[in-house]
Amino acid sequence: MSNPVLVCALRGIDAFKALADALKRLTQCRENLSKSGSLLQTVMALTPEVTFRQATFFFTETDFVTEHACCLLKSICVSCLVGKSQRSHAESLFTYLQAGAQILCTVLLIKPGAWSHSLARILRKLDLEKFRVVGMKHVNLEPDVALGLLSSEVKQDPAVLEAHCTYLTSGTALVLCLQRPNAVKKLIDLLGPEDPKLAQAQDPFLWRAQYGISTVQNGFYGSKSYQIAVRDMKLFFPEGLCCAECQTLEEEEV
C-alpha cells in the first residue's frame, strides 16, 4: 500500500460485536465521507484465533498493556481488533488470549409454577452443561422488580405488560446465579426463544420448549448480556455469592 494506515489493538466486553456494530454505523456514513474525499476503509479480525495471529504479526509483548492503558495504536498497513474483557491491572494481551474462555456469572430466574415441579431436572441439566450454582434464593417479586426484567418490546403493549407483571408477581420464583465459561450466552442458547412455540419449532430440547406454556408463562428469565447479568446479580444477591473470588466479580464489585 502507498500510504500507512492505523492498526488498533482493542479490548472490551463483547469486543467483536461492539466493533462490528460501530463499523456498521460508520459504513452508513461513508457516502458523506466520500464527498469530502476521505473514504473510510476498515478491516477487522473476526475470531480470537485470527486476532491472535494478526496481533503477533504486528505487535510484540513489550507493545502491550501498561497499568493505566488498555489499547495501543500503531501506524502500519492493516487494521485489526483484539478483545475480550476489560482488566484494570497490567497484563500481556498475548497471555490473556492464550488463557482461554473466562469464567463468568449469569442469572437464571425460574418463574412461578415452573420450578416447584421440575427443579431436580433443571438442576441436573445445569450440571450436565457444566454450570456451577453460586447463588440461590426464593423471591416474591415486587412489581417494580418484575417490570425491570421485561424487554422494551413487552413494555410497548400495556395488556401484554400487565399479563407479564401479574404472572411474575403471582407466586414464588427461584433465582439462581450460575457460573461457567461464557455463561451468559450459553444460558440464553439453552433457553431458546421466549415464545415456547418458536422454541419448539427450533429445537424441542430447548428449555422453554420443554417447560414453557405461553409467551407469558415461558418458564425462565435469563440475563441477556454481561452488563444485565451484573445488574441482576447486584439486584438479587446484594449480600454476595458463595463462589471463589475471580477477577470479573472483583472488577464489578459483586
SSE inventory with pairings:
Blueprint: E1 5-9, H1 15-28, H2 30-35, H3 48-58, E2 72-76, H4 93-98, E3 103-110, H5 115-128, E4 132-139, H6 143-149, H7 152-155, H8 158-168, E5 173-181, H9 183-191, H10 196-202, H11 207-211, E6 220-222, H12 226-236, H13 247-252
Antiparallel strand pairs: 1-2, 3-5, 3-6, 4-5
Your description of this structure?
By secondary structure, this protein is an alpha+beta fold. The protein has 2 domains: 1-31 and 42-65 and 88-100, no CATH class; 103-237, 2-Layer Sandwich (Alpha-Beta Plaits), CATH 3.30.70.141. It is built from 13 helices and 6 strands. The chain has helices at 15-28, 30-35, 48-58, 93-98, 115-128, 143-149, 152-155, 158-168, 183-191, 196-202, 207-211, 226-236, 247-252; strands at residues 5-9, 72-76, 103-110, 132-139, 173-181, 220-222. The protein has a 4-stranded antiparallel β-sheet with strand order 4-5-3-6, with helices on both faces. A two-stranded antiparallel sheet has the order 1-2. The radius of gyration is 22 Å and the shape is elongated. It starts with a strand and ends with a helix. The relative contact order is 0.14.
